[in-house]
Design a protein that fits this description.
Blueprint lengths: L7 E4 L3 E4 L7 E5 L4 H4 L1 E6 L3 E5 L9 E6 L5 E6 L14 E9 L1 E2 L7 E2 L19 E4 L5 E8 L4 E14 L4 E6 L14 E8 L3 E12 L5 E3 L4 E5 L3 E5 L1 E3 L5 E6 L14 E5 L4 E11 L7 E10 L1
Parallel strand pairs: 1-13, 2-13, 9-10, 18-24
Antiparallel strand pairs: 2-14, 3-16, 4-7, 5-6, 6-16, 7-15, 8-14, 8-16, 11-13, 12-13, 12-15, 17-20, 19-22, 21-23, 23-24
């Protein structure tokens, strides 16, 4: 399959994926209704495939099963009636949102294959990250590539690193990127989505249940777990972040001792550290919106280290 040449591209660090519904308004592009009724056709891109499926879907609907083999090998959506994505310049609270189900993740979600990172303590990842409705997980794939093409052939491309997300008990989660972060090749109100190409950097099977334009004003909040921990010197201390930010792309940063200045000692929801000397330490969690559209949040944990 011939690749799109001359696509305008940007790199967006990390879609945030969340199971919460914090949307003020939406414009549906695909919602699981039969493709034939929706004026949508799907197919492969490169050596990838895309097919309508009932294997995994939301209640009373279908999904599109996309098998990806690399950044230029996946699936495509073609729209007989190209939807107008925007009526003017995008607002900072407007997002292009997908509801996805990844087959392979690194921790947690029901109905998926679990592959823990090399060297990770398996007891650390699921514990404290599951409740009755959601599970925090990280997909196997590290980047999603979306190529958007309008009715005139003008295109924009998003190369999207993937972060952790919250999935429901069936593994479904929302993936979103702010429209304001995309460099549109034409005036936004003129862009009508004719074709969408969906690929990933690593082979995987991904189910797409919903595509829409959504809005979100949820502020970022963060918790670092227990407010105080008491440990012995050289014990392994496990820190677990819990954060909310709606559809924003969240980045996590841990500093294990603020007395020498706030630095970045670890970057994930779960971090481990050993203190070699007795004393009192304050560990700081900082959670940021990658795109800088929302204010960051911080939380601290006091650690008392004995002999």
């Amino acid at each position: 399959m011939k690749r799109n040449i001359g696509l305008i591209s940007i790199a967006l660090m990390g879609f945030i994926l969340t199971s919460g519904d914090c949307l003020a308004k939406t414009m549906v592009i695909y919602n699981g209704k039969p493709l034939a009724e929706s004026g949508i056709t799907v197919g492969g891109w490169g050596s990838g495939t895309a097919d309508e499926s009932k294997e995994k879907s939301l209640p009373d609907s279908s999904s599109v099963k996309v098998v990806t083999q690399g950044l230029f090998k996946g699936g495509r959506f073609d729209f007989a009636n190209p939807p107008q994505m925007m009526t003017g310049p995008p607002e900072k609270n407007e997002y292009l949102q997908f509801t996805l189900n990844f087959t392979t993740v690194e921790a947690g979600a029901a109905g998926t294959q679990i592959a823990f990172p090399y060297g990770a303590r398996e007891d650390v990842y699921p514990t404290g990250y599951e409740d009755e409705e959601t599970t925090t997980v990280k997909p196997k794939v590290s980047r999603i590539r979306l190529a958007l093409q309008d009715q005139t052939g003008a295109s924009a491309e998003i190369l999207q690193p993937v972060t952790t997300y919250k999935a429901d008990s069936a593994g479904w989660a929302k993936v979103a990127a702010p429209l304001a972060a995309i460099k549109w090749p034409v005036a936004p109100e003129q862009f009508r989505l004719k074709r969408l190409i969906f690929t990933t950097d690593l082979p995987d099977t991904i189910y797409v249940a919903d595509i829409r334009i959504a809005t979100d004003d949820t502020p970022i909040t963060a918790s670092a777990g227990e407010e105080q921990q008491v440990v012995a010197a050289r014990d392994v201390v496990v820190f677990k972040a819990v954060a909310e930010g709606g559809l924003s792309t969240l980045l996590y940063s841990w500093d294990f001792d603020k007395s020498d200045g706030i630095q970045e000692d670890a970057t994930w929801l779960v971090a481990q550290h050993s203190y070699n000397k007795r004393g009192e330490y304050d560990a700081t969690l900082t959670v940021k919106d990658y795109h800088g559209l929302k204010s960051p949040a911080t939380a601290t944990v006091h650690v008392s280290v004995g002999d």
